[in-house]
Amino acid sequence: MPTSSYNVQDYLRSHIRTVPNWPAPGVQFRDITPLLQNPKVFRVLIDAFVHRYMDPHLRPDVVAGLDARGFIVGSVLAYELNVGFVPVRKKGKLPFTTVEETYELEYGSATVELHTDAVKQGDRVLLVGDLIATGGTMLAGKRLLEKLGATVMEGAAIVDLPELGGSQRLRDSGLALFTLVDFAGH
After folding, report:
1. Nearest Cα to 150, choosing from 67, 52, 81, 84?
2. How many CB atoms lie within 10 A of CB 91?
């Protein structure tokens, strides 16, 4: 268990693997899979989110998870909070009527979709991803949920890479953010 001199953020950071030069030269890839492999570490990770969102002012009606690693944390968090979970999927993965949002990537674009009945007008939604880099996927997920009349109360992720500008871009769009580990300058 983390002690006061070794806080949750440091504990989690120590279990995130950095893979140099992947997927391209010069990239320091932050691999969260070690957080998920160790049951104690995974519990600390989930509990950090659960304790935050148990607060009545921050408690969502629904948790939405971003494809694909946002499904892992988001679905467990929804279960622990006793609220529903909805997946924000890559285009072509959902079988029912969908709404879609296209966003720009460094080289091209991508599209995410959401079932039209995933949320109701006025639902307070917590949008969960694994990592904030450029912020494009989370911003597209926010827009999708808002198209259906929901309010995205906060975006949450395990890791923030602030030097890539995504967290600032999301805050500039009006989205409150909560992240557990910040890799600024690392």
Report:
1. 84
2. 14
Domains parsed from the chain with CATH numbers: 57-182 (3.40.50.2020)
**Per-residue exposure over 114-141, b if at least 16 CB sit within 10 Å of its own CB, e if not:** bbeebbeeebbbbbbbbbbbbbbbbbbb
Confidence of residue 6 (pLDDT cuts 50, 70, 90): low
Give the active site residue among 69, 89, 113, 143: 69
Instruction: Report the chain's mean pLDDT, rounded to a whole number.
Output: 94
Annotation says 69 is catalytic: yes
Q: Are 84 and 74 in contact (CB under 8 A)?
A: no
Among 59, 101, 106, 169, the active-site one is 106
Q: What is the pLDDT of residues 37-52, one digit of tens each?
A: 999 999 999 999 999 9
> Which tokens go with 114?
């959401």
Catalytic status, residue 106: yes
- 4 CB contacts (<8 Å, ≥6 apart)? none
Do β-strands 151-160 and 131-132 pair in parallel, antiparallel, or remain unpaired?
Answer: parallel
